[in-house]
Amino acid sequence: MESNPVLLESKSSPINLLNEMQQLRLLGHLCDVTVSVEYQGVRAEFPAHKAVLAATSKFFKEVFLNEKPVDGPRSNVFLNEVQVADFASFLEFVYTARVEVEEDRVQRMLEIAEKLKCLDLSETCFQLKKQMLESVLLELQNFSESQNSEEESAAHPSTVPAAEAEREPPDSSLAAPGRGASPEGPAAKSKDK
What we know:
Blueprint: H1 13-27, E1 33-39, E2 42-48, H2 50-56, H3 58-66, E3 75-80, H4 84-96, H5 106-115, H6 119-155, H7 159-167, H8 171-175, H9 185-192
Parallel strand pairs: 1-3
Antiparallel strand pairs: 1-2
Helix pairs in contact: 2-3, 4-5, 5-6
C-alpha cells in the first residue's frame, strides 16, 4: 500500500533565512568577500557572502563564477563610482528584501540596481517611481480642477446674482397685496438660496 505524497512548505523559512544571513553579515561571520566602493574620494568596505550576492545580482554572479581561485579565504571586489550609502542600502535590500531610502534616492537606487543587474531591486524601484509619478499626477489634476472651479466662480460672479434677481421678485412685491404671493413664498425662496 503506497502513501500519497504531501507537500511540506514553510512560509517563514525564506524570511528566517534572510534574517539569519543578515545577522551573519552584520557580525562579519562566514563572509567570504569584501566589496570596496568608492565615490569622489569617499571609500568604504563591506564584508558579504558570495552566495547571497551571486543569487541576487547577475553582476556579482558573473564576477564570482569567472574569478580565479585565490590563496586567501576572502576575495575582494572593487566598485568605482558607487556611493557608500547607496551600496549599503543595496546590501540591506538583498539581505532583507526591503530598505528604506529617501524619495530623492530612489533614482540612484534604480541606477545601482541596473549597474549590478539586481532585477528585484530594479523592479521595486521602478514600481515605487511609478506610484510616486501617479501620486504627483493626481495632485496636479486635483490642483488643476480646483483652479478651474475657482476661475469659473470668479468669472461669473455678476451673472449669478442677476439670474437670481430675475427669479426672485423684489422684497416690496412680496409684501404687496394682490400679487399672488403665498405665505410659503419667502421660506421657499430662502431654501433656494
